């Protein structure tokens, strides 16, 4: 059962008033909260969602939402999702009444000129948090940025796999999502986005128009582990529970490997097979 998305968005008019804050993460992992520097992010967010972008995307793709009632109407929560396509971050927030914040490369926020300004407005307006990945502390920065968002009572979206699946299977989750949930003391809503890899496969923009499904599961409560956010066994257990819930929602085959390692292994196997094909037969 999903909420009626044709009615007036109750948060829209209020959030259109005034500038918003901008959470950003530097290369050394420091998180800053710049008051009123979000480029009117909230206003742009609702304008894009309800006027400029959302209605067109909704009309063309007709996304199907299931279990929207599982997403808290108010207060902080983590939306932990599988990751099949760059389009995932577009469809998930589209079916919700609330804003969802993700992390994005800081490069998207540092452009100059008219193009840089427009790009900065777009990514801030669509709920992205800039994070500098050049310092090798991207995971720590994402954690801190997520905690800032949750402290403000908002929804934070995260992909525990850390990167898009290259073959449609679900891969082992990073424990950052567990640590964030225990530190922030918030529920985790397992989420599955289905069909976006058909719309926009890895390396491509849009190849096919189909209706993706966004499925939200029952919120997971990890309050029983309060104070154990530094225990790596607990973090792994919590993460695996989240990934299992995502697997049940998405119907994907689960692989107990990290996605980058699996992708590298697949590339090596493909290269070896190619060498075998072109090598002269004895």
Structure characterization notes:
- The structure is a single chain.
- Strand 5 (100-105), helix 5 (113-125) and strand 6 form a beta-alpha-beta unit.
- Helix content is 39%, strand content 16%.
- It has a single domain (12-278), classed as 3-Layer(aba) Sandwich (Glycerol-3-phosphate (1)-acyltransferase), CATH 3.40.1130.
- With 282 residues, the chain is α/β, with parallel strands linked by helices.
- The longest helix has 20 residues, at 259-278.
- Residues 1-27 and 31-40 have low confidence and may be disordered.
- It has a 7-stranded mixed beta sheet, with helices on both faces. A two-stranded antiparallel sheet has the order 1-2.
- It has helices at 12-15, 41-52, 54-61, 88-94, 113-125, 138-151, 176-184, 196-199, 232-250, 259-278, and strands spanning 22-25, 31-34, 64-66, 77-81, 100-105, 128-131, 155-158, 170-171, 188-194, 213-216, 254-255.
The CATH topology comes to: Glycerol-3-phosphate (1)-acyltransferase
Distance between the termini: 63 Å
Name of the CATH architecture: 3-Layer(aba) Sandwich
What topology, given as strand order, has the largest sheet?
A: 3-10-9-4-7-5-6
* Share of residues in helices: 25-40%
